[in-house]
Design a protein that fits this description.
27% of the residues lie in helices and 44% in strands. It is α+β, with helices and mostly antiparallel strands. The termini are close together.
């Protein structure tokens, strides 16, 4: 199950999973897009491992990384 965490000004949704038994949490980012329906990516905490990046530029992933790093303590606590 995924839990809502944050909505950015451009309607990007950031949600997170429950903490897995190995201590990891999946953070999923999704942005509506007229061409491809949704752009999305997953980041696994605490190692900040990105996977399944579709439609986001490297610059956008850097921005999301900064957001996640600055709020990771909250995401981990809420998970």
């Amino acid at each position: 199950m995924m839990y809502p965490f944050m909505t950015l000004n451009d309607n990007t949704e950031i949600v997170h999973s429950e903490m897995k038994s190995d201590g990891t949490v999946q953070v999923y980012i999704e942005t509506p897009d007229e061409k491809v329906c949704f752009r999305h990516a997953s980041c696994w905490l605490p190692e900040y491992r990105w996977e399944d990046v579709c439609g986001f530029s490297d610059k956008e992933i850097v921005k999301f990384q900064e957001i996640i790093e600055s709020t990771a303590h909250l995401i981990m606590e809420f998970s």
